[in-house]
Amino acid sequence: MKILVVEDEPDLLRVLAQALRESGYAVDEAADGEEGLYKARAWEYDAIILDLLLPKLNGWEVLQRLRQERKTPVLILTARDGVQDRVRGLDSGADDYLAKPFHLTELLARVRALIRRSAGLAVSEMQIGQLVIDTRSRTVSRDGSVIPLTPREYSLLELLALNRGSLVTRTQIYEHLFEEQEESFSNLVDVHVSNLRRKLGGDFITTRRGQGYLLHD
Ligand code: CA
After folding, report:
1. Domain limits of the chain?
2. pLDDT, block means (10 residues), the chain with 217 residues
3. What is the CATH T-level fold of the domain 125-215, as seen in this structure?
4. Does CATH place domain 2-118 in 3.20.20.10?
5. Ligand 1 centroid vs 113 CA: distance in angstroms?
6. 70 C-alpha to center of ligand 1: Å?
7. Ligand 1 centroid to 136 CA: how many Å?
8. How far apart are the first and last CA of the chain?
9. Distance 7 CA to ligand 1 centre (A)
């Protein structure tokens, strides 16, 4: 799962990106509205965290323009007493908001909820055959015992599970799992898929040659 953080305060941007990475997300960063809009249009993010008061292009404008072409879930960051800001943000197409200052645990919970809702899930657990995927603790278990996965293997499984029954292309996997500045190789996706297959056992994941992967019940 990949998140874009658009925030012009360097310290806050750093703290947010770090907390999200520690929770297993890939994170891209943007320090102003123009860069944020550019990235939000160019890539497929699972969620965007958007500050409203930004240089070059403010958050409301970013949202309005983004909404003309993408439905990516957006969480806006607003001032504590900014009722008007929140209303304007929600009216511009934001999905949720959080008032500054906030607790990181709440931010992370809201991000999880946003991603869950955009995938049409009402609860934080998904059941695939014998597997139970807990998106809150980011763990996978079978018959009550946790299967040890690396953060990236977990993210890959979650992505396939959220899209179960549909083909997920290699490009989509690549975009959701790796950060823009990361050095990575095209066969990395296959390596993660094969490790995941080995750990899960069974034949949950089908390969569509030259296209991508598909997870079924
Ligand atoms: Ca700001």
Report:
1. 2-118, 125-215
2. 96 96 93 98 95 95 95 91 87 93 94 88 84 90 92 91 91 84 73 91 85 87
3. Arc Repressor Mutant, subunit A (1.10.10)
4. no
5. 24
6. 23
7. 29
8. 21
9. 6
